[in-house]
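User: Please predict the structure of the protein below. I'd like the answer in structure-token form so I can feed it into my own downstream comparison script.

Assistant: Understood. Taking the following sequence of 231 residues as input:
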Amino acid sequence: MLNNLKDNFKEVLQATLPIILVVLVLLFVLVPAPLVLVSQFLIGACFVIAGMTLFLFGVRMGLLPMGEAVGAYLPRRNSLWFAMGIAFVIAFAGTIAEPDVIVLTQQVNDASGGTISRDLLVYVIAIGVGFFVAVAMLRIVYGFSMRYLLAGSYAVVLALSFFTPANFVPVAFDSGGVTTGPMTVPLILSLGIGFSSVLVRRSAISDGFGLIGLASVGPIIGVMVMGILQR
């Protein structure tokens, strides 16, 4: 367990250290900042490193095994509707807890002056992710082609973009992007891999992956529909 924690710390340090160094160079060279601000940045950076280390440790120790265990259990109930329902609930809850989603929705709420509600946007994004993860379970069972599902989904996105208010279109695409965060990705991937690994004639590689790409379409469509209804 201690070795896993050390490995997580090294990974986080490798990912964050270049950004910290770049910001420090900018603060001292291009944008001269008071020492207090620099100190606050360094303290915040230390908290970020510590928090991400513990977060990733928790993901690998808890979320990944849990997701695979739940995914492997779902086929035993012999109910596709049950599997889709559980997948929807897990994806919905994971999206609401996603830090990237929380940051985006708060920023949108502030930038729009409250006209685009933070809480409503969070639930729309979560419902979109949950719906498409449930569709992904259906796809794993029946072996639908991922390329056709993605092509059809983005055809719907393209069609909706002609009717969506201009201020909702960029928010919609960013909403799809933030679903690929540190909370949602391991949860959905482990669920799909566990589900496909116990099904006959299904491959954990070809069927367990691709769920994130499909799930990210849901928030885009959801936010666009939200914009059309609020017009």
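That's the full token string. The CA atoms of residues 176 and 217 lie 6 Å apart.
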